[in-house]
Structures are given as structure tokens and as C-alpha cells.
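Serine-threonine kinase receptor-associated protein
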Amino acid sequence: MPSTTGSPLLSQTQQISLACAGHTRPVVQLTFSNTTASNHCFLISACKDGKPILRDGPTGDWLGTFIGHKGAVWSAMLSSDATRAVTASADYTAKVWDAVAGQEVVTLAHSNIVKGADFCGDAGTVATGAQDKTVRVFDVRRPDAPSTVAVHGAAVRCVKWSKHRGVVVSADSDRTISITDLRAPAAVKTLEIDGIANVSLASDGRLLSCAAGKRISIWDLDAFKMAKDFAVDYEVSVAAVNPARTRIVAGGRSDLLIRSCDFETGSQLDAHKGHHGPVHDACFSPDGQIYATGSEDGTVRLWQTTPGTEYGLWQCRRM
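Structure:
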């Protein structure tokens, strides 16, 4: 779709996003893998249709669907080498999958809906967050003996692993984000932010971005302090930072626009139309050249960070 421009300084380039079909209900989470040994990356999506999909990262081409959940899938993540996937579902389970063969490796049973799951450093350890307010860590080889590492005051809605800091980041449905070091789980650090819509980690695990109300806040996990805080004139549904720390991609909750903003100043660089429903998640590829968005409309879309450059299957035209 054409970019909408509100400034004469914006590039006079029309961007056509790549629409990736396959889901039948809202797409709620997206994650790119790291760059693999073969210099490639993959994209995995979680959807309320209960069927997470693995795609080729640069093109969005369908590679396979993980079949086995009996409820909505709220989270889908890939291991560091992209050989395994972990998914969290409304069917009271998280599942670890062989991402190459598409086969289930193990089911991690819970007593409530599981909203978040991620690998902790390697494919042998998984952290999960559930509606019973609990963050658990599982040894995949002993799935019946999880340990509780954090307890929130409300249902846990998101769990992510910071590979740089070696901590579990979990957010609940109220206003609390917890940062838990598995080496000392009793020393949990917390952030209190009203109206959290989405929490995202930069690809290096150093920055935590939060979309809340009409604010975008970026936290430095090394110094454990706020690095950026921007007020905007729209309800933000998601905010993600690119690997180079030059751009923030933000989704609008009601106007459905995808905005690209300057990381240093927060000023809007461009805005795009494409989705027909609110954007629930966004993430950048490991090289930062593209980003993916997932929406209530059931689609995944890929966008160029710099429209007009050749990348994958991209099609752009000059005005």
C-alpha cells in the first residue's frame, strides 16, 4: 500500500507491503529468528486459530504449520539456532517443537491458559507465563518438575528472554513488568507502567520497548533506566526498535497505521496503510532491513525499513 506522508522531508517512495496469508483468525505475536549458520532467518507467528506458522524470513513464504494445539496460540518463539520452536496456548499447555521436521517434542502442562513462552538461552530450558499469575521455568528433559521463578499480581500476558542480560522479562495484564535473573530469582526487578498494550525486546536483548496508552517508552536493561520516552497523539498498540537503534516501528490501535519514527527524537518519519484491523505485534529481521506486523485481520505483513531498496521479493516503484 502507498505510504501516507505528512512532511515534505519524507521520501517520495511508495511501499508495497508483502501480505502473508495462511491464518484464519487474529495474529497476536511474531518473532524473527537469529541469523542462522547458513546466513538466513525465519519468521514464526502465533494466532488465535491455534496453528502457528513458520515462514521464510526475507520473503514470508510458508514453510510449515505446527499442528497439535486445541486452543488459541498466544505466543510462538524460535530457539537461537532456529531448530526448535516453543508455543503457548489457551489449551493449558506450552509445546516444544522440532522446527525442521514440524513434530512435537514435548508438552509442558499447566493448570491455566498459557500466554507466553520463550527459550532461556538454549532449547533445553523454557520459561512460561500463565493466567494463574505465575512465571515458570521448565527443563525440557524433565517437563513434570517446573520451578516457579516469579509471581505477578495479575495474569501474565507475555514472557521473553533477554539473551544479552540472561534474564526473563514478563509482563502482566495490570501494569507490572518483571525482570528475573534465573541465577538469583529472588532479586526480581520491576517496572510499573499503566495501560501496557505490548512489550518488545530489541534483537540484542539490551532494550525493552513498551507501548502504553499514548506513550512509547524504551528501557535500557543494562543500566535499568528509561532511555527514551515519547508522547504521541494516538493509542499505541505496539512499539519495536530496529537493531541499529535508529528507528521505532509503532502500530496504531484504532487508526490502523504503521508508523516509523526516529529513535533519537521520536519524530514520525513515515506512515503506511495495509492492515484492516488493529496491529497486535511487530518485530524486525536480524539485519534490520525489514519488519513484520501481525494484525486482528488475520494477516502478517512484511515492510521495508528503507523503501526502494532491493530485498527478497520486494516490489517498489518510484513516484
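The chain has no helices and 31 strands.
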